[in-house]
Design a protein that fits this description.
Layout: H1 2-33, E1 47-50, H2 52-60, E2 64-70, H3 76-87, E3 92-95, H4 97-103, E4 112-116, H5 124-132, E5 139-143, H6 149-161, E6 166-170, H7 179-184, E7 194-197, H8 200-209, E8 213-223, E9 233-237, H9 246-249, E10 254-257, H10 269-284
Parallel strand pairs: 2-3, 5-6, 5-9, 6-7, 8-9, 8-10
Antiparallel strand pairs: 1-4, 2-4
Helix pairs in contact: 2-3, 6-10
């Protein structure tokens, strides 16, 4: 009899232990699900932008697929996003902050992430056609293997402000349009067309055939304040560390330099690009 009682007690303990383990696993699974990015929320084709300004611009350009808002977010900016999403028929989902952290790859998302259709780069021919439909003398910016997304985003922001008609980047060994680039540009990526090409040297040669003057930067170049930036022009900004490639430098019509009196020998790529873009802007606007 005692043996049977022991067996029954042993079975009861096993059953309770099993129930505790099952409940524990369910709790852990439920906890994970609060931050899981499920297939019902996103697709493999989705890209993401985050931050208020970048999200507003992407929504207004009709690129939104689904808007994710932090579940405790309130205020005028949230209402603005909801209204634009409603106008564009973009579904809105309230989610925990952890989910936004995952979608933005731990970026500063400000409580908002937007799933968007992938960015559509132009070809050089498309960029030329688009630019020449707006102006007889386009102004292009060529980025020679810029790698830092913050630099790229800042350059796009200044390009939009200074009237650049298009940006050209290489397909390889350079940053493309990423969520960080989009956020840093504060939405300028939606307004400045970007072409992606295989070979920058060939691209420059094609632009010259289209009567473009092509300018690069070099410490031994002409003072940029003497630069004649009128007409159809393309300005090349070199890599953050290596500068412009030797092959590309040979194709330049003129090399420009920004004089400096301090101890450093170079400026940040986005700062140098900004100075040169506004020098061109002041001339082209008749200033």
């Amino acid at each position: 009899m005692r043996k049977e009682n022991k067996e029954r007690n042993y079975q009861k303990r096993n059953k309770k232990d099993s129930q505790r383990l099952t409940k524990g696993n369910e709790k852990r699974s439920a906890k994970k699900e609060t931050v899981y990015v499920g297939q019902e929320d996103t697709t493999s084709e989705d890209n993401f932008v985050f931050g208020h300004h970048a999200t507003v611009e992407a929504l207004q350009q009709g690129r939104g697929n689904k808007l994710f808002l932090q579940e405790d977010s309130r205020g005028d900016k949230v209402e603005e996003l909801k209204n634009i999403a409603r106008e564009q028929s973009v579904p809105v989902k309230w989610v925990p902050k952890q989910k936004l952290d995952l979608l933005s790859d731990r970026g500063v998302h400000q409580g908002v992430v937007l799933a968007i259709t992938p960015y559509e780069y132009l070809t050089l021919d498309q960029l030329l056609e688009q630019a020449k439909s707006k102006t007889e003398t386009p102004f292009f910016l060529i980025l020679d293997s810029i790698e830092d997304p913050h630099n790229f985003g800042s350059i796009l922001r200044t390009a939009d402000a200074s009237g650049v008609d298009g940006v050209i980047i290489p397909k390889h060994r350079a940053v493309g349009i990423t969520p960080i680039v989009t956020k840093t540009s504060t939405g300028a990526v939606e307004y400045v067309p970007v072409a992606r090409v295989t070979n920058l040297v060939q691209t420059v040669q094609q632009l010259k055939e289209q009567q473009f003057w092509v300018f690069g930067t070099d410490m031994k170049g002409t003072n940029f304040q003497s630069w004649n930036a009128k007409g159809s022009i393309a300005l090349v900004i070199g890599n953050e560390g290596r500068g412009m490639s030797a092959g590309l430098k040979k194709e330049m019509d003129e090399l420009l330099t920004i004089p400096m009196v301090g101890h450093v020998q170079s400026l940040n790529a986005s700062v140098a690009a900004g100075l040169l873009m506004y020098q061109a802007f002041s001339q082209r606007q008749g200033g």
